[in-house]
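User: I've been trying to design a sequence by hand for this structure and keep getting stuck. Would you show me what you'd pick, starting by listing the structure so we're on the same page?

Assistant: Good idea, let's start from the same input. This is the structure you sent:
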């Protein structure tokens, strides 16, 4: 696509609730659009505070590489008075292709501090590369003899009306968003000294500490950027590389491309060649090509430089045979002569090399290959077959794919809302009774139904909402069937309609959707066409169907969500920072399986944040695997959690292709808001798993984490915004709906990621998404109760102290309290300033005790350290229970379900209290800094403001008119909900 074909399309739909400016409770509105030095305007709508334009405009995009830094500005003016009514600014990061664009209502903002603005304007903004669309030409506004229009003439407006709104079809429109991160030069630091021993860090996630073996340890490793000491990188003399959070690892790469002029090995002239690359005791084998003398392989092999003990690399071509493979030819390379490649250099060009026989005097054809020394920053790293995994592979493509590191992206999820209104003209099969009908809807494996209605007039009415989860690309169809309950447990289908999801309207807000009538078809096959025409079916179904993109479709647990953005990309806010994760190694693993009488493990790691999943390569037969892989995510909200899980692969060796599940080794959660900016967190996290025999440490995961803030102002502004998108408050879903939809979302994500290569297995996705966090257990209930008691322990301590004051246990303290009490009674205006000043001083005092590490799972807080075996047996019991007695099973499952809800409520209460405690504890350094600053400001304000005035204003504000209220939570509530709690420390 040529750059000059890329255009920005803007559909101006309508506006409503504008400020009246012409003296007649109305406005003559006009919208001015400004983008990249181009200015256009709509037509003028006389005397209307709810104008509707339905006009299209197209701007030229001069440079697509800077599109993300541009913005579209839409200003609304009243043409009679020339006054300003409001403006909207749409950042370039929210521009999407036409296929993803929906109409969004933007709230009008003020131009200045003293200006006024009200209302909303509906715009549809998208990017198109259709060459048939021409850029809108500017047209001047007609002159007006009225002197009141002088102010209006200061603006230049242009417009291109398009009342029919004929949009182009955008095919294969590229993403105009350009990465904002500059590539850094790669360099290799030399290990000059061994790292110091790990430093044990005490846990402060709970009042009671846990065993040192279960605590995280701070390390000081030598990474690619330099030595990490106290969270700061002490750099060497060389340039920092792109892989600066992991240790630099060197590999010998061999890329085998193809061969030519290979000799025939038998009388039939056939040859089944394959390549064997041998470096000392390690070797890599390609797949064989049947009956081909000019084969192509395009395979890459990586041999660890630390494990290499050979000085010669041999590339052998052999002929595949049943009994013994025949030798064809080989090429030798001296290791000392192999060149070093450092990104961002381009890949090394492959060359033709002659093949010789074992004696070295005959040429046996040629092979094209490239051989070089590189690091894990090389592009070939993820696609290479590694030498430390060769023992579990048979040389086939399917086996080599299972061990490679890959990046996955979750599908974009939508909520599909189906409003079943009514049916018309039922044709029941039994004329002697009134049909008892309901509508059953299903998409894929999601099935739900409306309530049953007795249709006395053959026109039943429901008006029920059914909500589903749909994933792009839309592969399933919405199937609605009208069914009659003819007997208990027996339904008869009266008609069915199939609606493709791609034909359903999308919306980003709560705007009304037009209803449609759908004709139902009989679900039977009729061979006689004449009979089918004669027996025409006329029942109709009245529906309102839409894809809601203004919600965030939850697939994580609400306590550990890694993404809070809505589905529609146009509602996404700019990123506030970058999260970098270095997965260094796993140490001290417990053997997960037995091979040849020896305990071993085939380990890989999975990290999830937002829509992006990453999987490291699988290190085979190693209890201390080293990964040294680094990944990056954009951060849009600090109140999100990064999750890293460690698994043992059961798909290699003898279990390859079987139904064995990958075994979970452990998991680590890191909340972004608990990280200081630009600090490198290098820690060793214990991998803790709860087994039927109790909690067990499976090993230690070594990580390096860094959060970099790109815009501190934007990050602090996010703290005042609602945690979830606006639709969750305008039209909230029930708790039962959210639980059911989350279960369906996890099922869809697991199915989609399971289709990748290598597949991310279902048990891995479910473990990373914490699908079992809502299930009841005695251990979790006791842990939440202990958390709640810990929250209220401060009030109990104050009560006990007050009793001691009343009992005169310490006369001096009691006298001082009496004096302070009398002072506050005599001067009530000092109560609030004193309280806020005390909170300020406590926050400043707690700064020296602030945590310097991310929180981690606490065994003692989770009540997993000393748990009764009977409670463990109950927790690991299946749900529903496997008891034989039906009555016991029903009562037991009901008890667990109710107890699970009580457990969640207790946990939520404890979470609110812990957030209040974290307000001054520097658990979230930015939030605590804001809190103590506000306390200081409040202390000064309340000092100079009379208490009566404060009380009067507070009461008036609390009883304010509903017109001045908002549906979304207030700024203090949003700030409070983003504070961290000890949910991150729960096992």
């Amino acid at each position: 696509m040529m750059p000059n074909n890329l255009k920005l399309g803007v559909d101006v739909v309508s506006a409503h609730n504008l400020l009246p400016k012409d003296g007649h409770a109305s406005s003559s509105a006009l919208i001015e659009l400004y983008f990249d030095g181009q200015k256009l305007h709509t037509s003028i709508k006389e005397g209307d505070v709810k104008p509707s334009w339905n006009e299209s405009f197209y701007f030229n995009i001069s440079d697509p590489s800077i599109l993300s830094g541009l913005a579209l500005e839409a200003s609304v003016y009243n043409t009679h008075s020339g006054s300003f009514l409001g403006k909207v600014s749409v950042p370039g990061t929210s521009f999407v292709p036409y296929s993803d664009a929906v109409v969004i209502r933007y709230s009008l903002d003020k131009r200045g501090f003293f200006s006024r603005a009200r209302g909303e304007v509906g715009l549809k903004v998208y990017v198109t590369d259709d060459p048939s669309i021409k850029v809108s030409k500017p047209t001047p506004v007609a002159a007006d003899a009225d002197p009141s229009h002088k102010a209006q003439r200061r603006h230049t407006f242009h417009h291109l009306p398009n009342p029919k709104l004929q949009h182009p079809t955008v095919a294969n429109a590229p993403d105009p968003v350009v990465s904002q991160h500059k590539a850094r030069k790669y360099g290799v630091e030399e290990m000059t000294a061994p790292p110091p021993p790990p430093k044990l860090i005490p846990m402060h996630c709970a009042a009671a500490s846990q065993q040192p073996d279960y605590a995280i340890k701070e390390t000081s490793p030598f990474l690619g950027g330099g030595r990490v000491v106290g969270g700061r990188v002490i750099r060497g003399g060389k340039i920092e590389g792109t892989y600066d959070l992991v240790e630099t690892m060197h590999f010998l790469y061999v890329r085998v491309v193809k061969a030519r002029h290979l000799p025939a090995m038998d009388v039939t002239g056939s040859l089944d060649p394959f390549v064997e690359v041998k470096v000392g005791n390690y070797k890599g084998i390609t797949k064989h090509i049947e009956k081909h003398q000019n084969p192509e392989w395009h395979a890459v092999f990586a041999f660890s430089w630390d494990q290499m003990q050979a000085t010669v690399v041999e590339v052998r071509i052999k002929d595949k045979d049943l009994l013994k493979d025949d030798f064809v030819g080989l090429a030798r390379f001296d290791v000392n002569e192999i060149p070093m490649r450092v990104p961002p250099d381009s890949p090394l060009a492959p060359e033709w090399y002659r093949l010789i026989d074992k004696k070295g005097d005959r040429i046996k054809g040629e092979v094209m290959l490239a051989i070089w020394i590189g690091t894990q920053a090389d592009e070939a790293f993820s696609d290479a077959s590694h030498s430390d995994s060769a023992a579990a592979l048979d040389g086939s493509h399917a086996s080599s794919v299972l061990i490679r590191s890959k990046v996955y992206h979750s599908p974009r999820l939508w909520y599909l809302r189906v409003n079943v209104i009514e049916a018309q003209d039922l044709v029941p099969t039994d004329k002697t009774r009134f049909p008892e009908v309901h509508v059953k809807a299903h998409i894929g494996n999601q099935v739900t139904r409306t309530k049953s209605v007795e249709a006395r007039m053959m026109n039943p009415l429901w008006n029920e909402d059914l909500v589903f989860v749909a994933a792009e690309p839309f592969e399933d169809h919405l199937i609605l069937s009208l069914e009659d309950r003819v007997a208990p447990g027996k339904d008869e289908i009266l008609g069915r309609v199939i609606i493709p999801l791609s034909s359903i309207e999308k919306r980003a807000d709560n705007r009304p959707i037009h209803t449609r009538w759908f004709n139902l078809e009989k679900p039977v096959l009729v061979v006689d066409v004449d009979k089918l025409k004669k027996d025409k079916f006329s029942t109709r179904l009245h529906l309102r169907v839409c894809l809601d993109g203004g919600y965030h479709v939850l697939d994580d647990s609400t306590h550990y969500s890694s993404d809070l953005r809505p589905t529609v990309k146009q509602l996404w806010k700019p990123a506030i920072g970058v999260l970098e994760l270095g997965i260094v190694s796993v140490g001290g693993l417990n053997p997960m399986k037995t091979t040849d009488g020896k305990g071993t493990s085939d380990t890989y790691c999975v990290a999830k944040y937002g829509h992006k999943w990453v999987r490291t390569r699988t290190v085979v037969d190693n209890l201390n695997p080293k990964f040294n892989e680094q990944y990056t995510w954009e951060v849009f909200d600090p109140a999100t959690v990064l999750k890293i899980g460690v698994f043992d692969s059961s798909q290699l060796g003898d279990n390859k292709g079987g139904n064995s599940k990958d075994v979970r080794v452990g998991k680590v959660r890191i909340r972004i808001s608990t990280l200081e900016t630009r600090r490198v967190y290098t820690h060793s996290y214990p991998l803790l798993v709860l087994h039927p025999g109790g909690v067990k440490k499976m090993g230690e995961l070594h990580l390096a984490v860094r959060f970099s803030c790109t815009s501190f102002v934007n990050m602090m502004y996010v703290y005042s915004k609602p945690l979830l998108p606006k639709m969750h408050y305008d039209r909230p879903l029930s708790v039962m709906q959210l639980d059911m939809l989350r279960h369906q979302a996890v099922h869809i994500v697991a199915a989609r990621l399971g289709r990748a290569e290598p597949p991310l297995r279902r048990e891995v996705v479910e473990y990373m998404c914490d699908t079992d966090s809502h299930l009841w257990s005695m251990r979790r209930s006791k842990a939440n109760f202990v958390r709640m008691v810990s929250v209220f322990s401060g009030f109990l301590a104050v009560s006990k102290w007050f009793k001691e004051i009343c009992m005169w246990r310490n006369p001096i303290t009691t006298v001082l309290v009496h004096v302070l009490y009398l002072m506050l009674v005599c001067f009530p205006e000092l109560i609030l300033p004193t309280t806020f000043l005390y909170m300020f001083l406590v926050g400043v005092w707690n700064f020296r005790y602030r945590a310097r590490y991310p929180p981690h799972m606490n065994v003692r807080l989770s009540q997993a350290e000393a748990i009764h075996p009977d409670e463990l047996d109950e927790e690991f019991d299946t749900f529903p229970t496997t008891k034989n007695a039906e009555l016991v099973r029903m009562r037991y499952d009901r008890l667990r379900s109710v107890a699970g809800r009580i457990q969640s409520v207790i946990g939520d209460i404890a979470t609110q209290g812990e957030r209040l405690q974290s307000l001054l504890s520097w658990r979230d350094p930015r939030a605590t800094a804001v809190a103590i600053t506000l306390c200081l400001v409040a202390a000064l304000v309340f000092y100079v403001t009379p208490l009566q005035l404060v009380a009067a204003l507070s009461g008036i504000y609390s009883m304010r008119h509903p017109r001045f209220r908002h549906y979304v939570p207030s700024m203090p509530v949003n700030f409070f909900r983003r504070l961290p709690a000890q949910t991150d420390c729960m096992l």
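That's my pick for every position. To get oriented when you compare it with your attempt: Residues 649 and 655 are 9 Å apart (CA to CA). Confidence is low (pLDDT under 50) at residues 141-195, 201-208.
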